[in-house]
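Write out the 3D structure for:
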Amino acid sequence: MMFLLEIVRLGLNNLRLHKLRSILTSLGIILGVAAVIVMVAIGEGNKQAALRQIQALGATNIIVRSIKPPESTNMGGEARSFVAEYGLKRADLRRVKEFMPDALHIVPLKAIGSEISAIVPNATRSARMTSQAFGVTPELAEAANLRIARGRYLTSEDLASAMPVAVIGHEVSRTFFRLVDPLGQDIRIDEDTFRIVGVLEPVGLAGGTGSTLVGRDLNFDVHIPMTTAERKFGDTIFRRESGAFSGNEVQLEEIYIVATSTEDVITTAQRARRIMESGHPALSDVQIIVPWELLENAKRTTRAMNMLLTSIAAISLLIGGIGIMNIMLASVTERTREIGIRRALGATRQHITAQFLVETGSLSAAGGVIGIGLGIGISVGLPLLLDLPMIRRLVTSAFRLETQVTTWSIVASFLVAALVGLIFGIYPAVVASRKDPVVALRHD
């Protein structure tokens, strides 16, 4: 045991005698370990962000959405204005309710209006934005995982009495009522006025995967009772596009179907698809979104991406191992006389091999520890760095980088680093142990 400790001491002393060379030798290992940790942290962070956004859509939800078919976008080739009729019908909603009685919720959304505006108190002019207003039923709050920040959501009484009330999204509140309490204020959808009774909490889909799937940023939504929407607005929405008016006649924008459990999501989605195909051949003007399927696909994709990123980063570890072997081979030549003296004093080949393996193992282990610290520091610091005002001005406001350091990446990168150091140190150690003692003593 004492002999083994003496070998370790000799190896570490030799590394201390050449501090700069030791640091430069282990630099490849340091950067390799740090690269593995950072790459995995970025991949895992992006995966978790995507999963949260997809889960925000509801793991048990099936979203049937109206989409504009390609042929309807070209109908205005000669005419300056036209009305394109497409998408979900009320008959589709009736069929879904008839053939899917076991669904927890079946919630329709009706798109209304072309413009949202508000007379902001103490402001010189009204603020305006393109309409993202919908007629909904109270069940939407549960189906779409909506939470109220202030006030209340729509009620069955609002629906029964066709009340002119509205619940606005977080960004609508910030845009129109930044310095004013929005509750009790009025908001206009086209020419109709609605009293604000609630404000939604921020929905974490803006600019992300979930926003892309939904087709809009939910934070800009305005919800009014479905009965009010049907009474005050028709099915045709006119908007100015590229200098011309265009109209879309869509009876329902979306239908949320909530399955009883995640185990039933896939079969429920298949049933919904068959129901939609009966009224919409080839599903040319409707789209069926199943967040649960997207969740599983996202997990598989990010798993493959993590493996790819880790493999790329592991190349740095390989280069670091080659660097260790190169330096240790030079060290063998440099220390030939020392090896001869030790052999003459009774050291065996195993002793010489052990000494050199201790040195390479110490280099790789120390490089691994430093690399772990550097990798964790970069992973934690990157999101903070991107939030600095001077950096934020150089990137788009929607860009967000999320990192998450994983235990397995730290353990795996350190073990690989130590293994690489030992493997690439074996050859120089064997070369040193095979030196002829007589020839080594005569070496200058």
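The two ends are 34 Å apart (CA to CA).
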